Structures are given as structure tokens and as C-alpha cells.
Amino acid sequence: MIIELKSTITAENAENLAIESKAFHIKYNDKRYLIAGSGVKEVPANLIDFAHNHWVFSNDLQLASSKFLPTKREVKIGNVTIGGDTKNTVIIGGPCSVESEEQIVTSAKFIKSLGLNLLRGGCYKPRTSPYSFQGLGLDGLKLLAKMRDDYGLTVITEARDATHIQEIIEYSDVIQVGAKAMYDQGILRACAKTQKPVLIKRGFGTTLQEFVQAAEFVLAGGNPNVILCERGIRTFETGTRFTLDLCGVSWLKEHTNLPIILDPSHAMGYAYGVADLARACVAMGIDGLLIEAHPDPSVAKSDASQQLNHDQFETLISSLKPVASSVGYNII
Amino acid sequence: MIIELKSTITAENAENLAIESKAFHIKYNDKRYLIAGSGVKEVPANLIDFAHNHWVFSNDLQLASSKFLPTKREVKIGNVTIGGDTKNTVIIGGPCSVESEEQIVTSAKFIKSLGLNLLRGGCYKPRTSPYSFQGLGLDGLKLLAKMRDDYGLTVITEARDATHIQEIIEYSDVIQVGAKAMYDQGILRACAKTQKPVLIKRGFGTTLQEFVQAAEFVLAGGNPNVILCERGIRTFETGTRFTLDLCGVSWLKEHTNLPIILDPSHAMGYAYGVADLARACVAMGIDGLLIEAHPDPSVAKSDASQQLNHDQFETLISSLKPVASSVGYNII
Amino acid sequence: MIIELKSTITAENAENLAIESKAFHIKYNDKRYLIAGSGVKEVPANLIDFAHNHWVFSNDLQLASSKFLPTKREVKIGNVTIGGDTKNTVIIGGPCSVESEEQIVTSAKFIKSLGLNLLRGGCYKPRTSPYSFQGLGLDGLKLLAKMRDDYGLTVITEARDATHIQEIIEYSDVIQVGAKAMYDQGILRACAKTQKPVLIKRGFGTTLQEFVQAAEFVLAGGNPNVILCERGIRTFETGTRFTLDLCGVSWLKEHTNLPIILDPSHAMGYAYGVADLARACVAMGIDGLLIEAHPDPSVAKSDASQQLNHDQFETLISSLKPVASSVGYNII
Amino acid sequence: MIIELKSTITAENAENLAIESKAFHIKYNDKRYLIAGSGVKEVPANLIDFAHNHWVFSNDLQLASSKFLPTKREVKIGNVTIGGDTKNTVIIGGPCSVESEEQIVTSAKFIKSLGLNLLRGGCYKPRTSPYSFQGLGLDGLKLLAKMRDDYGLTVITEARDATHIQEIIEYSDVIQVGAKAMYDQGILRACAKTQKPVLIKRGFGTTLQEFVQAAEFVLAGGNPNVILCERGIRTFETGTRFTLDLCGVSWLKEHTNLPIILDPSHAMGYAYGVADLARACVAMGIDGLLIEAHPDPSVAKSDASQQLNHDQFETLISSLKPVASSVGYNII
Q1: Helices H, strands E: what count in chain B?
Q2: With contact defined as beta carbons under 8 Å apart, do D143 and D104 qualify?
Q3: What are phi and psi of B39, to 5 degrees?
Q4: Range list of β-strands (E), chain A
Q5: What is the pLDDT along chain B (332 residues), one digit of tens a residue?
Q6: Cβ burial, residue A154 (10 Å; 0-12/13-18/19+)
């Protein structure tokens, strides 16, 4: 249940009521709310006098629900805004991993040259095997920050586990919570305490309901700037790396109020399918696209098979514009 | 292995060689071929003198493989053609089931009024429960045939099992092999003996490899007019009815030479997501779209929740044209 | 809804009531029942005077439901009986395919020598690829029938599609409906018209609910002798061929009244795991086990990797007896 | 590749060689090994003089592989030992969550009264929703430690994320890495630096290969005491909570050298199936069983539906002994 408190209630009052009721207290758009679990079906007696409005839910998809906020939330990412009425589809490009200064500078210049704004690059790689490249860590974060300073790009990188989440929050403009880390409460609770945008990737074995519940951890903890990212689920089909769940995207658009970004690169796992899938995603009317591109994919230290080279990436971006336009959206 | 026979070999010779070698014999584009399984890696001694060319395969995706025919096959459906260089995306519309003359006449007039050419409607419903509506059977087939005669539409309906496949072949312009029937060799072998187009739906538990192997049954048996239809696979996600596998569509486009039609209605299972998904499908550059529409979905005898009403369908078709155009395709 | 008719109602009366009510009419244990879909929640007005008892259901699992018959049904297979209070775990052994008279005679003698009663062997193979061995067909059926006559064994073989179901019903003692054919209404309706036992295998993409609904087709059509067979479902895990669903077996034991046989060979796909899995199955207290064994698996024409040789099979059967005994069951 | 170093190599030498070769260095059973990724197929030139023996692998399952150590590893858990030649099946019982001193004392006394040795109880619950009970945290850990001191039990509890892994290592006798945390390198690296046994649960969307690779993180980091726990994977079947993958257990027994414990409670999700499944698990010849039991499941703060009450648990344990005995194992 979400209870909107009367406008006369102070922050301190609200916090005390929250503690008393074992509820979360958040402020959103100048209004204060208490949020309890979906088990609570009636306004508790001790809160009746303070409640201005309330919403009852059948499950724990609450703050993210389109029943609570029927219009999509707006989230500002660096100089651009997505969601709300913006009709913007933002492109996040760059390599799977930050591998060297030369590689990331080449990538940054390239993204900039296409008139795009967001640069991605992994620093702490959530590799399945201990014998694979694990990322440059803090050195990678510093390189990304340098790209922001030198090229005016907004940078985004991924937290692998809770041990380095504070570094990520410090250096990155957008905090990416990876598919393997999205149940990690150490990460989610830290993300709730910043106001930086948080992009949560769906786990490959995660239901839509659980996926949005991960967002609820961040929203209920006080950070309204949450973006969902669908990147493919694991199914019986192994001809492709994962299965991009666009039916799920329709579900998210219907049932939630959060901006949605799609990652066709990881879903497909092979460069040959990325362009077709990217166009399919854009035609759905989405808030953004995450596409891996590497100056030379053949030498990439991770996900070599799915990264586009720069020519392929540039051709793809050109082809996306008329598709976006055909559904009333803008590629930015 | 596929062996192209020398042009001097007669039909009778070829048939004898096929029997001798336990291989299939087909004629395609005025050439004769023998097809053995992928286990055969070298031209057998008894065939060397007759072979003009040959292809070796690592699996039993052979006649459907883009390694055998690198360009997409063209298939004629009534008055329209898909595949090849046509850049046509054909729309197949109509109700889930043929329920009555009034319902199917309304549907036929509607499809015609939009300038579309293909009318679908189930007559033998592959229902999971014996207690559900099972379709009008032969009466339904006759109604469909009447729509062809009265409105000049091309009609398509589904075979549920081998007991009525001859009726379907007689009355329907396109033979649809349903998701639950696509392993049915009684159906596939009958489809191989006609030259009518055969649309094979992917089983919801079927790998891409197995899906194309079902097409091989029809191709190797002598009917080159095969169309693949992706309609969603069964995954752990139950928020939507199935999961439309567009990564799989990329795989099919890369690895096969068959036209591909998509069915977002069955995949989604809910009308609210069908339009977004249909636009996504069209943006991939596909050969057709199968969309369920009913004059009044609320009283439909099957799949009530996923069928569009006629207003929704008309709006959808209008919105598909600019999307198709943005990727160089035409909605027909 | 299931309605038990008063004992005074004749067969003819019952049939007329069924037609009038668009319901199924069956006789079971000397009582007559009408069965309508789960949508019917109250005894219809025209049937009130004839109803002795009735059961309401929330889904179309009705005749198979433990809510209708709380005790497990007994099914006679040749000379042995399973289900009910018998505590029998019957072993069905034999090769994947009948390949030759020599091979099936060797198999029959072997099964007999172990004191077992049931011989399996495929004649119409539901192969995924047209280029694989498709079975001996009617010749295979005749060989199986000869084994019954010569060795007193009960034989079981599989229907691939509806075109040869009458042959199977004529020659085989138990009709096996394969995993790829279990939605085939041509087969299911034919099985409903015989009184021979029908063993229905779960499709690898089939939910438990749908699986039991296939059994409802046979039960509602008049044949009470239905056995369920779990043989592994398709999941993201490809280290093994399928995933044997023993949680599903617990569900079936709780929610249905049908005997349950397990097939660890197809689930595992590799001989090395079959014995451990077979012991696990038996420890659940089940009605039977289907194990593939071949005189020489290395030359088997289908499923070579998962068939046990005769030594392995004999060792396995010996090891199953104490396990069955530890849970109060008998291997027969 | 794993390289066994000559016995004359000192710890310091080995460490230097490891750094020089970007490899891991471990000591196991008085021998020193260097471990590089599976990409390395030949002993590098700089190591040839120091190599006594070596193993080449086709994937990154190396230290855990039965190709490296063909016999199962032995792991000591408190006073008991599993794996190796022990033929012990250890029972780990107790509530899903530690909820109060009274509840855990009742549980501890109960486990003790049955002659069992291991008590489980969650303190940091990896709940999907922020609105559910999150566990008692450090207070819970202290209660568990008290149970060890007061009743001589070995205690096991789960790390949810890396923020509290040091507390878990300090208070718990066995470190459980939960299904949602098994990719968490913050946790895995910490586990590698202790010598306490680490029980890694398979993620519900995790392949067998990835599952064992998580174990490789701990093994390669220096802790040989790793136990695998299969607890059900997520499939399309939703009639049960998850699908217990016993085919996967056969695969693990064949391909790895690690002890294996099974958790039928989480897999099934319903108390009614737990006993049958537990007997199935034991009949496979496994190293342990994890069963949730609660003094009063109806008031449990988490997983209420799947926990057994104490009577059910006691009956189950009695029934497991003859099953274990029938396959040559002992319940301890």
C-alpha cells in the first residue's frame, strides 16, 4: 500500500510515522508517501488522520506501478532527458570493457563524432570464470571519468558486487546494475542513497515481477531515477546467446512507470543480428538502446563476437533514425 | 549432403539413383538434386559420375540452408509474392476461429476494405482441453472457401492432425501447420506432396534447428513453397503468454533461405501489446505478419484476450506502413 | 463439472442428456457420469432431476483429478497390474527402435530372462530430421507381436501420428503416445475408443496442466486406462538432453489419480546417468520405469548414447529391488 | 591448464611464477599447482623446467574437474566428514529464517534430539521484495553461534551480499552462498581466503558449467573445501516453485570432484512433495540434504508453504535411512 501524506506533515513527522508503521518514507514531486508491503490492504488506524490519498496493490510492484503513477517517469541523464513526454530514444554506445586508454579514447571520440552523448565501458567485469579478464577496476573508472572531462560525454559503467559500489557511484554518471547483480541488496541499497540515475538490467533468469521489485528497492529507498534494461533471458534456445524478451517490454510499458532501455547486443551474442534487433527495439517506442561497439572487435578482451565495429555502428545509427521517426521518436 | 545431378540425368534415372542411395530426389528451378543426411560427407562412389556439384553440411539443415541457396526463396501466395527480392511484408488477418458465417463474412469484408489479401481463420482448433470449443471442421473450411470465391481473398487455415490434412489441402490456399503439429509427419509428408504454400509454425518448445528440420521434411519431399512462422516460445516468464523470439528470427534470416512470417498475437496473448510488437517485427524486415482480429473479441470462442477488434486492427495497419517503409519494405 | 447420474438412468438416456447438454458421457465402475467443462459451475436446470452427485472444478483437470477420485486408478497391463494399492513398479525394457528380427529376439529373450514382463521397441520413430532412420513401420509391429506370441511378453510401442494409429491399436498391447504427439487429437480420440492401456508421454515443452488435459481427452472419450509418463522437459540446461521433472511427479501424485511411469533414459540422454536417476525415480514410489536397453548400443540406429547394454541393464534392475523395497514397492 | 610444480619449488618461487604467468597458485594435498585459463593448451616456455605434470582442459572447469582429480574430494564439516569414500549423506535441517531466540532454540533442540549435527537458519534473507522480512542480521548470527555453543551443533547460514560476508565467515561454521549471490565475486573471493567449508547453491538460471565455475573462483583462490548444492532451476513449469535438476546431479557426479548436497524444499516450494523428493535425492547416492523445518510453518516469516513441521521432518528422516542403506550410504 502507498499512502500519500497530507501536505502539512513535516519530514520529521513522516519519518516517525514510517518507523512506527515499519514502512518506507519517500518524497517525490514535493509530496510525501509512506509505502508498506502489498499485504497491507487498508490504511492502518494510526495513519488515518495523516492520509490524503492511498493506493492498494495486489503485489509488491508499487512505486514502479502504472497504477500509482499512470505517466512514465522522466529521468535526466547528463545533458539529456528520457521518459515522460520526451519521445527520446537515447543511444548508449561503447565497448564491453575498458581495456586501455587508447581504446577508450578512440571510442569516446567516435561516439562524440556521431553526435551521441553516452559512453559505456565495463571496469569490473562480472565474468563467470576466474580465468577470464576481470576488468581494469579503479583504473578503468578513472579513464571513463577522463572521457567525461575531455569530451563532455556522460559515462555509464557497471557495479559487479557491493565491494566497489561506492567507487562506481563516485566516478560514473549512471550506475549500471548488471544482470548477475540485480538481486544484490548491498548494491541496491547503496543506489537508493544517491540521486544518480540507476540502470538496472534484468537477470537472465529473472521474472518481470522480480525485475521490477529490484527497482522498488531503489525507489523505496529514496532514489526516483531508475531505468529498466531488458537484455535477454535464458531459454532452451542456444542458437543465440539469450532471447530478447520484447513481449516483456510490452508488459513493462503497460504495468510500470519506468523508462526502458534495451540491450540487443548481449541478447543476440552475435554481431550479425544486432542491427535488425536494434531496429525492432526502436520501433517499439523505447527510451534507449545500449549497443556494444569496439574499435576492433577481433581483439576485444570480452564479448568479442557480439560487438560491432565502428563502421557497422555508424551505419546502424543512421538506419535507426527513420525507424524512430516512423513511430514518433528521436534518436539522441 | 546435397548433390546436384548433371543436367543430362532424367527423372527416372534420378529416382533410381535416389532409391539405390537411400536419398531424396527433388527438382528445383529445373535442376535435379539428391539429398542424403548430414552424416554423408563425401560423394558416394556410385554417384560420382552423375554429380555436377555438391554441398556438405554439419547438420540436417540442408535444403533450407543459406549455404545451399544464399538468396531467400520466393513464395507465391494467391496473388501476392513474398521473399526473394520483393521486399513485401504480407499481412494475414482474421479471427482465431471461424465461428459462424456472419462472423467470417464480416471479417472478410473488413480485410478486403483495408486493401489486404489474406484471410485466416481456424476450423480444426488444436485445443489443449477436450472441454473447449473444437472448431467448425469441414463446415468452417467451406465457409473459408466461400470467402475466397465471394471476395477474392486468399485463405489460410490450420491442420490440427493428420486425419483431416487432405481436406485442408483441398480447401485452403495456404496450409498452416500449427505449433503443436509441427512434428507431425503425417501432416508434413502430405504437405510435401502438394505444391501449395505451407506455413510451418514453430513449436513453443522447439529449437530453431528442429524448426527448420520440419521444413526439410516438406522440402525434401518435393514442395519448395515453405514459409517459417515464429509465434513465441515457452519460457519461465508467465506475465505474457509466450516469448516472441526475435533473436531467433535473426538466426533464421542468417542461416536459412526461407521466408519468415511472425505472429505477435499468440506470443503476447494480450491485445495491449500486439501493436508495439507488430511494429517491432516489421522493423526487422520480414516477409509477413499474422495478426488475429475479431469483429467482437469479447465474445470470441477462442483466444479472446489476444484478438484485436477491427478499429484496433485498422489503426495498427496504418501505423505499420511508415515502419515498413523506414526499412525499405512494403505492407501488402 | 462432473455429474454422477442416478443409477436408474439407462445408457440411452445418459447419451441423450449428454448430447442435449454438449457434455461427455462415460461409464466408470458401473456408474454413469456427464462431464462438462470447468466453466460450468452449477448443475444445469435440465439435469437437476437426474443428478445423484456432482463435482465442481477450477480448471479442466477433472476426470484425472484427485478431487474426483481420491485414490489412484488401477490399470491392467497384460498379466500385471499397476496403480491402486498394488505397490508395483513395473519395468518396461527394450531398445529405442525395433531394428531387425535378430535384435528384437535377443532383446525379448533378455527381458524374459530377468523375469520381467514388458518389452518396448519403436516402429514409427518420431524423428526430427527427415534424413534419420524412420523405423520399420508395420514390419516392426509384426515383429513385436511375434515376441508376444513367442515369449509371452506384453509389448508397447509408440504412435507417431494419426495415419497409423489403428495399426498400433491392433498390434500393441499398450499404446504409447509420444512426447511430440501428445497434443494430437487424431491419436487421442482413437485411443479413447479402445480399452487398451494408453501411456501418454509429457511433451518436453508441456506444462503439467496441459499434460493431464491430454489424458482428459482419452478419459472423457471413454477409455479409463490411462498412464502418465514423465520423460524430461526442455530447459536452458544443455549439459544433459532434457531435465527430468521429479517436482512435477510430486505434483502429479498430489493432484491426479493416474498411475505414473518415468523414463530417465530420454531425460538424461547419456547412459552414464541412467542408473542413478532410475534409483531416484523408484525411491519416489512410482508405478513404473521405462528404460532403454540395446544388445549393442554402439550400433543402435537411434538414441545410441542413452541406451544401456544388457549387462548394465541387468545390474541396474538388481540395484532397483532394494530401493523399491525401502519405500514399500515391488519391482515387477 | 593446471601445472603441478616439482616438489622442490618453494611457496615463494611458486608465487613468483604465478605472478609472472598471470596464473593462480594453490597448494593442495602438499603439492603446488599453477592454474591458467583453458585457453592455455601447452606448458608455457618459462614454466617447462618447473613442471612435474600438467592437465589440459577444453573449458574453465579445471580444479573442480574429475579429469584433474578423479576421486571425489573429502570435506570436513564440524565433526562430520562428507565426500571421499565416506558414503555419508549429511542432513542439514532447520528453519528458513532465524526469527527469534525461542524459535531457534526449539529448532536446535529438535535437530539434536534426532541425532543430527547440522543446523541451518537464514539471517540475511535475499528477499526479492523490499517489503518482505529481511532477516535478523547480526543478531541472528549471534543466536546461531549460541546454538553451536549450547548444543554442540555445526551451524550454517547464507551470505546475501558482500557487505556482510566477513560477519558470516566469523560466525558461521559453513558459509552458504545463496542462489541469487553465486555470481558475486565479492563473496566468492572472500570465501577463497578462509578454509571454512563453502556451500555454493546453483542459481536458478545458471548452467551447470557456470555453477562449477563459481566453485573454481573459490578453489583457485586457495580454499579447497567447496560443496555444490542443487536447489532447483527455473523452467516454464510453474505448478511447482522450481524444477529440481537431478539429471544435472548426474552430470556433476560424472564431471566434477566436488561433494553434492541437494535442497528439495526450495525446488518444490510445497511441503507435500518434499519427502518424496528427499527420498529420490538420497537414492542417487549424494553427500547431503538440506531440508527446511520450522516449529510452526504456518507462522513462518519466509517460505511458509515449503517448510515441514517437526513431526513431518522426523518421519522423513526415519524413512530416509533405509533408502540410503539400499544404495550403501549412511544418514548422519
Answers
A1: 10, 15
A2: yes
A3: -70, -25
A4: 2-5, 24-28, 31-35, 51-55, 74-77, 80-83, 88-94, 118-120, 154-159, 174-177, 198-201, 226-230, 260-262, 288-292, 330-331
A5: 999 999 999 999 999 999 999 999 999 999 999 999 888 999 999 999 999 999 999 999 999 999 999 999 999 999 999 999 999 999 999 999 999 999 999 999 999 999 999 999 999 998 889 998 889 999 999 999 999 999 999 999 999 999 999 999 999 999 999 999 999 999 999 999 999 999 999 999 999 999 999 999 999 999 999 999 999 999 999 999 999 999 999 999 999 999 999 999 999 999 999 999 999 999 999 999 999 999 999 999 988 899 999 999 999 999 999 999 999 999 99
A6: buried
* Rg of chain D in Å (alpha carbons): 20
A74-331: CATH topology is: TIM Barrel (3.20.20)
| Cα–Cα dist B270/D171, whole Å | 50
Domain limits of chain C?
2-55, 74-331
Chain C residues closer than 8 Å to B234 by CB: 205
Give pTM, 2 decimals.
0.96
Cα of A239 to nearest chain C Cα, Å: 12
Chain C: give the shortest CA distance to residue A237, in Å: 7
CB A283 within 8 A of CB A327: yes
A61: closest CA of chain C, how far (Å): 27
* A137-A138-A142 Cα angle (round to 5): 125
What chains are in contact with A, requiring at least 3 Cβ pairs below 8 Å? Answer: B, C, D
Neighbours of chain B (3+ CB pairs under 8 A): A, C, D
C111-130 as b/e: b if 16+ CB within 10 A: bbebebbbbbbbbbbbbbbb
On the CB side of B18, CA atoms within 13 Å amount to 22
- Whole-angstrom CA distances from C193 to C12, C183, C196, C222 are 18, 17, 9, 6
Checking if the pLDDT of C127 tops 90, the result is no
* Phi–psi pair at A288, nearest 5 degrees: 180, 170
Look up residue C195 and give its amino acid: Q
pLDDT digits (tens, 9 = 90+) for D242-275: 999 999 999 999 999 999 999 999 999 999 999 9
> Within an 8 Å CB–CB cutoff, is residue C162 touching chain B?
yes
Phi, psi of D119 (to 5 degrees): -115, 130
**Residues D38, A204: Cα–Cα separation, whole Å:** 25
Alpha helices (H) along chain B: 11-20, 101-113, 138-151, 165-171, 185-192, 208-220, 246-255, 264-268, 271-283, 310-326
* Closest CA of chain A from D215, distance in Å: 9
Q: Determine whether the interchain pair C234/A234 forms a contact, defined as Cβ–Cβ distance below 8 Å.
A: no
Q: What are phi and psi of D60, to 5 degrees?
A: -85, 25
Who among D129, D160, D184 is closest to A213 (CB)? D129
Sole residue written with cell 526473394:
B84
Sign of CA dihedral C312, C313, C316, C317: negative
Let me know: does A150 contact A108? Beta carbons within 8 Å: yes
Q: Are D223 and D232 in contact (CB under 8 A)?
A: no
Q: Which of chain C's residues have a Cβ under 8 Å away from the Cβ of B217? A: 130
